[in-house]
Design brief:
The complex is a heterodimer of chains A (612) and B (384).
Chain A (H helix, E strand, L loop, with lengths): L18 E8 L5 H11 L5 H10 L2 H6 L6 E8 L5 E8 L7 H9 L3 E7 L6 H12 L3 E7 L8 H12 L7 E2 L8 H11 L12 E10 L3 E10 L2 E2 L3 E4 L5 E3 L2 E5 L3 E3 L2 E2 L4 E5 L13 E4 L18 E7 L5 H14 L4 E7 L3 E8 L2 H14 L4 E3 L3 E2 L1 E5 L4 E4 L11 E16 H13 L3 E8 L2 E9 H4 L3 H8 L5 E11 L2 E8 L2 E2 L5 E4 L3 H15 L7 E7 L2 E8 L15 H15 L2 E4 L2 E4 H9 L4
Parallel strand pairs in A: 1-3, 1-4, 4-5, 5-6
Antiparallel strand pairs in A: 2-3, 7-8, 7-16, 8-15, 9-14, 10-11, 10-16, 12-13, 12-15, 17-19, 17-20, 17-21, 18-19, 22-23, 22-24, 24-26, 24-27, 25-26, 28-29, 28-30, 28-31, 31-32, 33-34
Helix pairs in contact in A: 10-12, 13-15
Chain B lengths: L8 E7 L1 E2 L11 E2 L5 H18 L4 E9 L7 H14 L1 E12 L3 H4 L2 H7 L3 E7 L3 H6 L6 H14 L2 E8 L6 H11 L6 E6 L7 H4 L7 H17 L9 E3 L6 H8 L2 E5 L4 E5 L5 E6 L3 H10 L4 E6 L2 H12 L6 E2 H8 L3 H4 L2 H9 L3 E3 L3 E4 L1 H4 L2 H8 L2
Parallel strand pairs in B: 1-4, 1-10, 2-3, 4-5, 5-6, 6-7, 7-8
Antiparallel strand pairs in B: 8-9, 11-12, 12-13, 14-16, 15-16
Classes of the chains: A alpha+beta (612), B alpha/beta (384).
Amino acid sequence: MTGMANPGKSAAMTDLAHIRNFAIIAHIDHGKSTLADRLIQVCGGLTDREMREQVLDSMEIERERGITIKAQTVRLNYKADSGETFELNLMDTPGHVDFSYEVSRSLAACEGSLLVVDSTQGVEAQTLANVYLAINNDHEIVPVLNKIDLPASEPDRVVQQIEEVIGLDASDALRVSAKTGEGVHAVLETLVRRLPPPKGDAEAPLKALLVDSWYDPYLGVMILVRMYDGCLKKGMKIRFMASGASYQIEQVGVFTPKPEKVDELGPGEVGYLTASIKTVAETRVGDTITEDRRPTATALPGFKPSVPVVFCGLFPVDSADYDDLRDALEKLHLNDASFHFEPETSAALGFGFRCGFLGLLHLEIIQERLEREFDLDLITTSPSVVYRIHVADGSTVSLHNPADMPDAGRITAIEEPWIKATILVPDEYLGAVLQLCTERRGEQIELTYVGSRAMAVYRLPLNEVIYDFYDRLKSVSRGYASFDYEMDSYREGSLVKVSILVNSEVVDALSFIVHSTHAESRGRAICERLKDLIPRQLFKVAIQAAIGGRVVARSTISPLRKDVTAKCYGGDITRKRKLLEKQKKGKKRMRQFGNVEIPQSAFLEVLKTGDT
Amino acid sequence: MDGASPGDLAVYVHWPFCLSKCPYCDFNSYAAEASDHARWRQAYRNELAWFAGRTPGRTVGSVFFGGGTPSLMEPATVAAVLDAVAGHWTLADDAEITLEANPTSVEAGKFLDFRAAGVNRVSIGVQSLEAQALKFLGRRHSADEARQAIALAARTFDRYSFDLIYARPDQTATDWRRELTGALPLARGHLSAYQLTIEPETRFFERRVSEAPDGRAEALYDLTQELLEAAGVPAYEVSNHAAPGQESRHNLVYWQGGDYAGVGPGAHGRLTGDDGTVRAVSQHRAPERWLRAALGDGHGNETDVPLEPRERIEELLMMGLRLTDGVTRDAFGRRAGLPLAAALDPASLRRLEAAGFLVDDARGLRATPAGRKRLNAVLATLLA
């Protein structure tokens, strides 16, 4: 197809030559949303009032954290200086490494990207990773220096940085203030001029990319699609090539950003469809949608089923909330099939679920949504990565839960996942950052300087990263380091399972797997914390950290020596009895270990501080 | 209860006013003066009549004036209360009539008048016999005044007791041994020794005064037991010591789970009904509010609720195990309406027995000395 007007299609569709699909790549707070809002406004997509409503409609957590979890898209109609009207499809991509696969699918749906860099700040690690993803997707990249209205703006320095760090010609970078609107017109003109139009054949069998999907309480599952070949229209029976499921289309439409029904979607366009689909589990990001009766010969490349990399247990603080937790997980799962959950039972924490996530942020988001939107009090056990355990009988086990680790005697080798991490940090903090990486068993791959900033690329074991690495990195760099990673490989390691014992009984929820060189210090840290968290009792409490039968750290809580109310007369009885009743209620949240009662709050605290 | 007699009734009278509020005190007390003593007399009379209506035909074995500082009451008020008690109930010939007194000269000066009103026992808030400690505790009297008040009580009443507060910050075993040994000759048959505890909403709490760490608390407690036992006034309760037969009859009612009427602001009561159900009653705490209610409605009752069987069991154990003699099978069965064995969790009991904190035998259930000084934790385990 050359993109010339095609006589066979309806007037609702735009010819390929007048379509531009683009994404915006930016670090948090570099002005992605402001620029997007400004583009929408300039193209007349929303009134000022609707703008505000639009913002309010997005997920609370997304707004608070300044991240996008779900891909969103807006169709803009732009009348260019040439007099031609273009259909611009802005794809708002998830902005975090946990969702890098989702990002890659969103980018695959576009021909180009705006690379937005805060001209007062410079390039950050997050930007870097996404720019490379865009380059891998053959994107035309338009550098945009934002916030040029601010006095601290240093566009020349940032241009140099983009060229040195990313290796991208930034000499014609656009200088913009999304806030004041300065340069926004140039952005639109450049998009139209520089980005190639999409390719596609309206007559060929349907081929569309499933970019994202979410659950809408009124319409069921909504699917965001990027069209390649053929057309999508109401009533058509479609098939998802990876999952095999087929459905009859009920509605097709586009976002302006309000959802608006259209008759059909043609090649190169971006829009949505609904088809009475009950759960997003059947609509996998990256899947190819085709027509059931006339399928395309080859699916689009790059589909990967989502694989959780971080696991943890989620338990209700009050065991009576178990059913509510299950219902809540099922509801969230309707909208996010990338997290997994299955029932888990813990002697320490009772009934709960073992859950798998795309990463730590994903874990936090789900946890926070469960607590906020479903009003649940949760205990989250320390996150674990997926280990590959090679057992003596020759089989390999994927271990999601340290409590399920086979006997050490049966294990021939353990492999752990490693990541490739990119850290950008001002010079003055580099030493501390390098030391942190070394402490966490990191292997340096690359160390380069760009002006006063250094870029360190490291190979790190993921289990070292989920153990408070972000917090430590932030603290040693006073918040100036930015960090990003991608999964690298599985490698054999000297890994051991450390069990925590209270009066000789294993507290299953506190077991963890760690490199043998860190077993003692981590074990000791937990013993010491538990010592402070478990109230003194009538009996001595011995806390131990052990690898198999070998104790590597211990602490002792000495028994109570005196604990009796001095004065208790007629007027005190009611109050004292109520105090006792309150204690009894608290005991429902106690777990018995031998003759020791441990308040659930102690586990909660140990797990919360991320010391495991 | 099968009509078993609930035994003697005890009457508690609360006088909420003090000259000043002590920094450790979390009682329902106020540094103020009574607005009008005659109105207070009438209010007490009204409330006694109200209680009498609910406990007809009972014998009163003890009356206790507590506070606050009841030695600030006009003797006429004390007399009016005792007249009313004698009028509504049968007042036992050997009834114990105790009044709490502070050892300032003014209050001690009223001892004879209180005796004339019917009081036969005083409990004196000495707290310490050391000048510095008295200052720390916010007391308005000197050590000499305390000695004189005790001497006067000894001349005026057959029975008296006094309170001491120990385990104060920085107080060593040597300090306490000296102070307690010095106080012993002043005692006659009864003595209360309380460890200082820091309660919320007290000035000590606000000042972040800390309680003795439990190692020192235990050592001082053990020393107290040792010295007072040797002196012939062994502990009969966690903080109360008496020569045999000199125990406070009134306070034993609380610890043994007997019935008591509580009149005055914030006073509590336990009353056994005809069907054996025990009701917990309490009066409005704020003095003026109570006064208005008692004068207007005839009583200042705020809550009046039946105790659930489980609550009754808990109270009997919670209070009874404070006593050296513990809870007897007989009394427990009578008061709880079920046998002691049926009220306890056998596994917890066995664990506490094995650890040497409780003894369960033919007589009943009691705490060992080791169990008594950790009674809160023992109860938490036993009643879990």
